[in-house]
Amino acid sequence: MIIGSGLSGLGTAIRLSQRGVTDYLVVERGADVGGTWRDNTYPGAGCDVPSHLYSYSFALNPHWSRSFSPQAEIEQYLRQVADRYGVRDKHLFDTTMTAARWIDADGRWEVDTSNGAFTADFVVSAAGVLAEPNVPDIKGISSFEGEIFHSARWNHDASLAGRKVAVIGTGSSAVQIVPSIAPQVERLDVYQRTATWVMPQLNRPYLAPERFAFQHVPGLQRMIRALIYIAREAFVVTQVKLPWTGLLLETVGRVKMWLEIRDPEKRRKVLPKHRIGCKRMLVSNKFYGALDRDNVDLVTDGIAEVRARSIVTEDGTEREVDAIVLATGFHVADSPTFNLYTGRDGRTVSEAADAEGYQMYKGTTVANFPNMFFMLGANSGLNYTSLIYIIESQINYVVDAVTTMRQRNLQSFEVKLDAQHEYNRGLAPKMARTVWVTGGCTSWFLDKHGNNSALWPDFSFRYRKLVRAFDIEAYETTAKTP
User: Fold this and answer.
1) N or C: which end of the chain has fewer CB within 10 A?
2) What is the pLDDT of residues 49-70, one digit of tens each?
3) What are the recorded GO MF terms, alphabetically (predicted)?
4) With a threshold of 0.70, does the pTM exceed it?
5) E strands in 353-440
6) d(CA 182, CA 310)
């Protein structure tokens, strides 16, 4: 059973089918495939990874309209891939997984859903890292009488034109939302907790001859994809290997501020105090220009409370507001889905993480949870290039594990705790020198223990080498009974 049909779940389903494994089911709470690209339909939504790198390697898309794709095109691409590879009939849409328990006596999982109960030999958690919106716990927020919604649950029936609007947050979603709505609202208050570096985006439409060449010149698109991949891997130097080299990028960011923001006070507010890369770098050619508008105010004082029709900051200022957009990100290391999986010893993923820290083996398996895979699990994320590269690497590992288990007639596997601890001890010295730890910021990369449990601290091709085959020697296994 695969939980979720975003990039991870859909890709896993396709690869299982291609390897001849057809007795699987994908449970998806939405009405279609697409995951985060189905749910995030806010104004200006798009990808900050180049289009040619943001697709499955086995299903390149020569029809991208721009060098950085808008949300609707990515969603359409994923739907077309599902149709092309014929996996829709293996999906159960509009179905939410509510609980999963490992039954040791049976060597299987029991899975409860809103559409009935199931048993499964293997479970793949592909719920996604950008799936559960983070709604801030602000005093009085539930008493607000105007429109209020999270960026990932955009209310398209709510008209913001001519109204006083507040956007809380200045992360990846906000830098796309703010320029999209600023020209139409009466006033826009943007609440910033921490300034983040914003880089230029080399975004342009593809010309008709280019799209023709992508479609008809053999190998052209793969060559461009490879060049983009190599260029993106260079960011590992500034973030992991030699963080001081990020000073060059910081200079670019400072020049961009000076060119695009006239107001010296706003310019001072948006200047980050941390090293570039410590938080996720943002890319936008419009965000600073939107902040510089006369009807836009950048608020850096903390929010004290939300009232029926206003927001009050810690300095006592009260600002009237008709609508609030929560661009406050997602639960990543503390995903609510971790409370739904109960392992061999009766603990959930969350309970195990509370006791031992959020650790996994190669970002895919964890002790106490036999026959279970986590897509984009601990320390397998990237913040500089396409996550699809990591996703496909993990898919290879999952599919190889399933086929290996079947070939050897094995019932269950569970990663050895010693192997898990040794693997994470090897990550520690690499992580210690990264800008994510030394750069002087806090970010969603960090869990509640202050550890960076989100990102992979090395080149992505090294991660792919690490999971190229299922290393069964790192696992305790049991044979199937006759």
Assistant:
1) C
2) 999 999 999 999 999 999 999 9
3) monooxygenase activity
4) yes
5) 372-374, 410-415
6) 19
